[in-house]
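Our consortium's second objective concerns turning raw sequence data into structural hypotheses that experimental partners can test. To show how far this objective has progressed, the report includes one record in full. It was chosen at random from the queue rather than selected for favorable results. The single chain below, 555 residues long, was entered without modification.
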Amino acid sequence: MSGTGSIAEVGAPSARSRALAVLRVRSRALAAVLLPAAAAVVLVAARMTGRLAGDPWPAVTLAVCAAAVLVLLVGGIFGAVVLRASPAVTPTVPLPEAAAPDLYRLVRDLADRMDVPAPSAIALTPDCDSWLEDRTHAAHRRGAARTSGGIAGPAGPESEPGAAPVLVIGSPFLWWMRVAELRAVLAPVVAGTGPSAHPDIADARGFVRGLDAAVDVGSRPGLGWIAHPARLLLRLCQTDAAEMERGVAAAASDRAQGVDYGLRIVAQEQVGLAYAGWDRLLTRVALPAWRMGRWPAHLDAGVVSALTELSRRDRLAEEFTSRLGERPACDLLEQPGAIDEAASLLAARLFHGGPAEAGPDWSPVDWAAYPEEVVDRKWRTEAARLHAALDALSVPTGLQPPPLPPAGDGFGGPTLERVLGYLTDPAGDGSAGEALAGRLSGDLAREEHAADSRAGSGRPRGADTLPLFPLQPPRSGRDLLADHVTALVCCAAVDSAGAGPGLDWLDGPVLLVGGERRSDLAPRVLSLVEDGDPEPLRDWLAEVGVRPEKPVRLV
């Protein structure tokens, strides 16, 4: 195997030329720092040989020497910051070889087939992407040396100076993809170790990462002056750096052409499907749990269920179900359950800002317990918010909520009948719900802003480029009111009709009546909220056996 990989393939010469352009920016910056010192040396030499005798040369020489010392001092400090500042590293779950020997063998076999250096280590990220990441900086090696035990394991080869990059793999790929598909998808990524090992490209990348780290250092109090030259240098080399990365990617893709190319085309369809399922699972299933202090402990296993359900519903995806009989890539792991749990906790940290470790207010939840511990609690929280909005609302039209039934015979407390009575609008234009919808929108916006602000402040360094969930379009007040009325109806069905909470992998919380999902509730709630007509909902309640006058248990 070649030590650095050939640079003869398509894209590599361009990458090297762009790397040299980046390094020329560094050389010019160094020359600018040394220029005053060179001028001072010339002046001092001229003074000593008597070529510049008399005024004003003594004063000029002194001023230039002072300026040279100042520029060298500032330049030296700036250079030390660029060299020593720790570049941000994407938070990942380290995967030592003992935890995945088969996966390491697969990656090394890929590297051998393409004649490139093998990655120094493997790590997992809770996202649908894969890449190579350089972790040879001294600060990263010190941090890796402190990591031991559990899934993280020892620092391993990623702590060695001059080691190859670390291969970061999206954890959903391991659970959804088959072994052959994963190998095909990873081939162009692993091939990137070849051009990445070229000294000029590695040097240019290190310079750019150092400038990025210097900008981060400059954000600290009293160090703002460091960020200005770092940003200037980044602007000067950003075009060449971007073209260098494109050249590296083109070279890696060209080198991987001979490795499972036909299968890679098919596997790319699975990448898009995995991304869609993963995004939906996080937004509709994981997010409600995160907001109430719980984190699903097996998100990767959940995405398999979500994508299997999507394949079942979508006729275009029926052909994908036949591949489920092949060996899944997670079989390459020794303890997939423990690794899934570690990746799930990291996902909560990255996308919601949760704590780094489980605790009394931040505990895992299994999928079997999710309906009772998350869905039911979510419904009752929304029902309580709806009744609190009714309590706080003053209605200028003269419409007042009916009073609560008197205590006794188990019928004291918040009821569904109270909401039905308030939203019933003989005019049929749904105006009764406008004030309530506005109140709910304000209350919910304040609650979510406070919760997400607290969560976002706990995100680890290196997660700045990842979005906080959810990335959803803003919802109208009527939509929020319909959601809260639906939650109250579900609570009433659970309390008085023997229904139960359930989980749909694609849609999130669902109501189960007699073990079957009821999907006919939404249009009846909309009839009440938008038109003020309660009759369709009352007919549904009578069919299911819900007693709207019976109090609902709230959180």
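The partners drew two points from this record. Strands lie at 93-95, 121-125, 130-133, 166-170, 294-296, 363-365, 500-504, 508-513, 516-517. The CA atoms of residues 148 and 418 lie 58 Å apart. Both points have been shared with the crystallography group to help prioritize constructs.
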